[in-house]
Each structure stands twice: as structure tokens, then as C-alpha cells.
Amino acid sequence: MAAQRQDLELVNVTKRYGTALAVDAISHHFKSASYTCLLGPSGCGKSSTLRIIAGHETVTSGSVLLAARDISNLPPARRGTAMMFQNYALFPHLSVIDNVAFSLKMKGVDAKERRAQAGEMLSLVDMTALADRLPDQLSGGQQQRVALARALITRPQVLLLDEPLSALDPFLRIRMRTELRRLQRELGISFVHVTHGQDEALALADEIVVMNNARIEQAGPAREVFNAPRTAFVARFMGGHNVIALPGGHFAIRSDEVRVSAPDTGLMAGQVVAVEYQGNHVSVTARIAGDQEVIALMPDQHFFNEPKIPGDTIGLTWEQSNLHELTA
């Protein structure tokens, strides 16, 4: 007999705070054993959505389903979900192992068993050697690992992560992305991860859900959302795209697909307004007709063979097949 799928589903979920609309009738199906990132700017509704799934916020209307069971009105501990908070929320007076074991203690699990289970979780996140330390004796990355172990010890069907990497330095953030992805694959459970970082979402997610103004603007596989944005908002927010008004509508074109040429040989001319060296390429921003700006990424060797400075007139060209029409 096949194992039951642990799919998570939101059905017309709405959340109001008085007259303020935080989540506006969103529906989405999260596939079992997938890594999904809720992505969007501050105030778009992504954290409210996560808290609704966790049971830390009530729904105004709509339903939250997990494994075809309506969990909308269940308390957090009975949902089959676990949440890792942005600030980790570790108990400062408890050791690492006691922090991890705390939820089992609340359930009445005896001391020997809960320490054994906590030890397994610490091994999973490579923190066994620091089991007896207090939280303030740990680095930010180590505290994050403890918070992960504490969330995972409840054996959730879905792990919810609220901007878990935001407090880490850039180098550690990249390292911890790898760790999160490894854990998700090893455990085979669904992770739902809130972030405002496009790079983070692209690096981690099987699926990206882009939110804007309390609604889902676009959802799909990470590569699809990046390469085929449906709206100008998604194209701009994901980064790496120009949004250009042309006869027939608005179009997106990736910056790395725009080529710089002599002024009289491009599809259109533009005046350089900014140049930024970015390592293996140089970002050249030019103003075109209609006071629009277009960014082209030039290979650094190409740029330094033919340098451009603000005020220069250049040609801009691209393959017409790389233009992507936007719906809004």
C-alpha cells in the first residue's frame, strides 16, 4: 500500500486585521516532500500566510488542509507542522540538548527517552559536541542549527521557516542554504520557507510563490518563475530582467541577453547613465526613448576592450525570441 501523501493546501485563505487585509483569498497546493519559498517584499502577506499555516494566526475565512485533513482550527501542537522562528527563540537558561528536548518534556516523555531523541536531532544538524552549552555560548549559525533540531524533534509533516537566514553573515548564509536543502532531502518532508531574498529562493526552492499586495502574483518551479515572469512586478522583483514598453505591450528581457553595440547597429539607441563593475561582468545602464532604463551585462573583458562611460551613446540589441510578453 502506498504511503499517504502529506500535501499541504490553502483554500481561499483570507486574513483581516480590522479593516486591513493581510492575506486576500489565496489558494495554493504545496506538493508533498517539496521545498517551497514564499517570496515577496515586506508587507506582502508571506509571513502572515506562514503563521496561518502554523496556527499562530486564525483564518478570517478559508481553510488550511494537511494530508486532506482540515487543520484550520487546530492548535499549533496538533497540526503536524513545526515552526522555526526568525529570532530562533531559544531558552537562554537551558542547555542546547534541553532546548531541543523541551517539547518532548511538555508532552511528558521521560528524561532518558527525550534526551536520546534530542541527541539524534543534534547529530542530524552536526551539533552533538555542543550539547551542554548555553545558547549565548553559540554563534548565530550554531543557534540556528539548535532551533532547527528543536523544530524537527516533533517529527512534523511540514517544517515552516520564517526568514531563517536573515540574521547570518553572507558567507554563513550560503553555507546554511546548503544545509537546509540537505536536511529537506534527507528527511523527505515539506519545507515552506519565507524570504525576501530572490537569490535565496532560487538557490533553495523546488517551487517559488511570489506574493504581492496580500495575493499570490505567480507560483511555479523556480526556473520557470525566473525565466518566464508573468507580470512586470515579478520580472522586476526577481531581478535580472528589464521591463520595456514596446509597441504591442510590455515585455521582459533578461539583462544578460541584452547586447551592447555601436549606436547605429542596435535595435535602439540609449545613453549610458551608470556603469557598475560586478566581477565577471559589468552592468551598463542606458536610458532609451520614453525615459526608460535598460541594463545590459557585458563580459568584463569585452567591456574593458571597449569601455563605456556615462554620457556615451550606445546601441542595444537582443534576439526577438528572448523577449517575454507580460500580462500586466
Question: TL;DR of this structure?
Answer:
This protein has 328 residues and is an alpha+beta fold.
Main attributes?
elongated, Rossmann fold, OB fold (Dihydrolipoamide Acetyltransferase, E2P), single chain, about 325 residues, 2 domains, alpha+beta, 18 strands, five-stranded antiparallel β-sheet
Describe this protein's structure.
The protein has 328 residues and is of the alpha+beta class. The chain has 2 domains: 8-227, 3-Layer(aba) Sandwich (Rossmann fold); 242-325, Beta Barrel (OB fold (Dihydrolipoamide Acetyltransferase, E2P)). It contains 9 helices and 18 strands. It has helices spanning 46-54, 96-106, 111-124, 140-152, 170-187, 198-204, 222-227, 232-238, 300-305; strands at 8-17, 20-30, 35-39, 61-66, 69-70, 81-84, 158-162, 190-195, 207-212, 215-221, 241-246, 249-254, 259-261, 268-277, 281-288, 292-299, 313-317, 324-325. The strands form 4 sheets. It has a 6-stranded mixed beta sheet, sandwiched between helices. Strands 13-17-14-15-16 form a 5-stranded antiparallel beta sheet. Strands 2-1-4-5 form a 4-stranded antiparallel beta sheet, with helices on one face. Helix 5 (170-187) links the parallel strand 7 and strand 8. Helix 2 (96-106) crosses helix 3 and helix 2 packs parallel to helix 4 (140-152). It is elongated and about 80 Å long.
